[in-house]
Amino acid sequence: MSKSAFLTPSQGAVPCLLTTWETTETELYYWLVKQTADESVAADLLQETFLKALQQQRSFCDIDNQKAWLYRVARNLLVDSQRREGKRSHIDISDIELVCEEVETPTVDKLCQCLPKALNKLSTRDRAIITECDLLGCSQQQFAKQHQLTLTATKSRIQRARTKLRDVLLKQCHIVLDEQQKVSSFHPDEH
């Protein structure tokens, strides 16, 4: 895979996009291959991801964690693709850590390294609804239908699960909030 297969710099790609793409493209492609088990589908999703980044034009340069943004876009495109085909989305949660590897990221972005461990501390039921609705983009209405629940029951269940996840994150990651109740620092448990 090469950016030149999609667009050359003379066709309008901004330098910050090309630099980030060059360092992320291969890793993102293999992640997509792992998720889809189909190289041609992965290549199509990779191309769509690049085009979405290209649509950002110069504002792409203002994105704090460009690599994480590319992974998020690719993941969303993957989920949309699987929905169109009627497949259930099964994206490996441990891969979320891939987008957290940037050294210079805001504190709240770095917090995602705590997420997989925190999710594992939740019950299977709570972990499932958080994973499907919040991480994989399944609508609450779709989740309710898939699990034979009412929409009201689903909304209650996800709110309880989010509260439990928040409590686990606060305790496990030793989160410190600032005056505006935003994360200012954290210190994850090592065990």
From TrEMBL:
Record domain RNA polymerase sigma factor 70 region 4 type: where: 113-165
RNA polymerase sigma-70 region domain sequence ranges: 26-87
Superkingdom classification of source: Bacteria
Keywords: DNA-binding, Sigma factor, Transcription, Transcription regulation
InterPro entries, per the entry: RNA_pol_sigma-70-like (IPR039425), RNA_pol_sigma-70_dom (IPR014284), RNA_pol_sigma70_r2 (IPR007627), RNA_pol_sigma70_r4_t2 (IPR013249), RNA_pol_sigma_r2 (IPR013325), RNA_pol_sigma_r3/r4-like (IPR013324), WH-like_DNA-bd_sf (IPR036388)
Membership in a protein family: Belongs to the sigma-70 factor family. ECF subfamily.
Protein known as: Sigma-70 family RNA polymerase sigma factor
Source organism per UniProt: Vibrio porteresiae DSM 19223
